[in-house]
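Subject: Interface between my chains keeps coming out wrong

I've been trying for a while to get a sensible model of this assembly. When I model each chain on its own everything looks fine, but I need the whole thing in one frame so I can look at the contacts. Pasting all components below, labels as-is. Any help appreciated, I'm running out of ideas.
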Amino acid sequence: MATQIRELIGNHKILPVPLERVRDEDDLYELGMTSFASVQLMLALEEAFDIEFPERMLNRKTFASISAIDRSVTELVSGRA
Amino acid sequence: MNAIPPEFKAAPAADAPAKPFLDRLFEDGVLMPTGVDGLYGRSGAFEEVIDGFERLVERYSRADGAMKIHFPPAMPRVNMEKSGYLKSFPQLAGSIHSFMGSDADHCQLIAALTEGRDWSEYQSPTDVVLTPAACYPLYPTVAAKGAVPDAGLLFDLKSYCFRHEPSKEPTRMQLFRMRENVCIGTPEQVKEFRERWLERGPKMIASLGLPCELDVANDPFFGRGGKLMARNQRDQQLKFELLIPVNDGADPTACLSFNYHQNHFGSLWGMKRADGEEAHSACVGFGLERIALALFRHHGNDVAKWPESVREVLFG
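Reply #2:
Try treating it as a single job with all components included. I did that and got this:
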């Protein structure tokens, strides 16, 4: 899952820094992810994993790091199954 | 700062005036209807109140050494496209279209008009859109001038602004004036600027005999993605509003807003400081019609009968 998330971040040019330097726990906002970019990432994740982030997840924390995104997406994917 | 009186927080009281505030403003000639919600004529008295409030703002902005610039209420379409406004607020944006066709096209337009059909398809977008916030035309202008000096930059702006949100609430106009002070510089400089106005704002409003309260706020970003943007903005306390009760039985109205944009506009327009770092920016915006309406709401529709202390601040 984390690999797929990384790919999405790369393909949508979410970060201004090279992705290989980003660790799963790093704060993406601190690395330069803008508010706009986080919305783009949210929409890309929804499309890629066929999920919809519920309102309670539409916050900064959900998209703060690759591992945080991984946890949210895993929860939504398993909830759907 | 006076607290918001409880009667504004609850549903309209039984003895509340039966007539809506907007109707009372029309009846007393403070505003004049045009047939479209949110588009009104203003009386001379209303304009004098706005002039008086602007003099109060100017006392501060002149002392700060802010450079006064007035842009027309429209800006280049390309700049709106680049600004991201259409990503965040497509529902509010207004673009200007005009007829650019041939004689034959003109005949079709006239025919559509005569038959009461939609004639907008005979119009094309011009190079101009309506300004959504007074500071939007500023950033590309500053960026074109080169590096932001070490001391930072201060501007005092005013513009009519357009937002497509027709409403029966007189405080939500489609065309309204915004006076803004903007600071561009280091994060420290612009945060200090915002702090300064966060202290001044409530004092200015209290000097006009109006109750107010400060609160964290967010912009009305569009759609589900907008909810995420709004929460981000709140979590980081990037926007504060000074709220004054104006509309009966409704939440108090944001009359001033204090915004820290971080490097958003610096990055977007390439506004750099001499050391090559992206400039940060912040602004304080005064909703001039809203402040005037708050004064009419609290002190009555006859300006001559307003408390002497309030008249002194505005007209003294």
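Reply #3:
Confirming on my end. Chain A touches chain B at residues 34-36, 38-39, 42-43, 53, 55, 58-60, 63 (CB under 8 Å).
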